[in-house]
Specification:
By secondary structure, the chain is mainly beta. It contains no helices and 16 strands.
Length: about 250
Amino acid sequence: MKIDSDAQVLDFNPYEIRTEADPSHNIGEKVISSDRIFRYAKAGEALVAAHLAVQDTIVAQTAMVVIAGAIDSTTITFTNAATTPTLGDYHEGYAIISAGTGIGQTYKIKDMKDTSGAGTGALVSGGASSIRIDHPLVTALDTTSRLDLVKNLYMDVKHTATATLQPAGVPLVAVTADNDFCWLQTRGVIGIRADNAIVAGSGVENDGSVAGEVDIIVEADYVVNPRIGRAFWHDGVQDEVHPVFLEID
C-alpha cells in the first residue's frame, strides 16, 4: 500500500521496469541509494537508457473558476478550462489557489472526477469537474477563487528537444512502452549521451535539437533553460555517453 509520508523502499531496484495498472509507489517517490538519488516515474513514451527525461508537455489548466470548496472539505469543484486534459493527467499533481478568496493555498491532488463521477476519459470544455485533495481546506473557497492545476513532474515523462521543460531524471535502462513505471536518477554520477563536445566542469542542460541528449549550457541559456548538473571527470566528444554529475535533486 502506498503511504503519504517518507518510506523505506525495501524492493528498490533502479534497473526494474514495471507494467501495472496502478503504481507500486507514489509518483515522484524519492529514494536515496548510497551516493545517488532516484525518483519513481510513469513513462509517457518509450524511454532510452542514458537519455534525459523531462516533464510532459504542458496543457494549461489555469485561472479556472471555483464552484465550491467548503472549509475542512477535501473536495474542490470547478469549471474546466477551454483546453482540457484526460482525467488521470493530474493524479498526484498539485492544486493552487492563484487568485481570489483562499489565494496562496497549495494541495496535493489525490484524484480528479467529472460530474458523472468518472475518473477516466477527457474533461469537457466548460463543464464541471472536481478534485480530491490530500488535506482539508484551511480556508473556504468561493466563485472569486481561481484554481491552477500543476501536473506531477514525474507523470508521463518523455524525451524532448524542448530545452525549457523541467528535467525529471535519467533512466538507467530502456523503458519499453508508454505507461510503464521506472526509476529515474536525479542526483549523482551517471552517463548521459551528449549531442556536442563536452568540457569537464561545464554546466549541462537538455539539448535543444536532439531529444534526450545533453549539451553544455552557455551564458544566454541560463535565463530560461534549467541546468541539470555539470560535466564530470573528463572531456567528451559528440554522440557518446559521458559522466555527468546530476543536480536535479
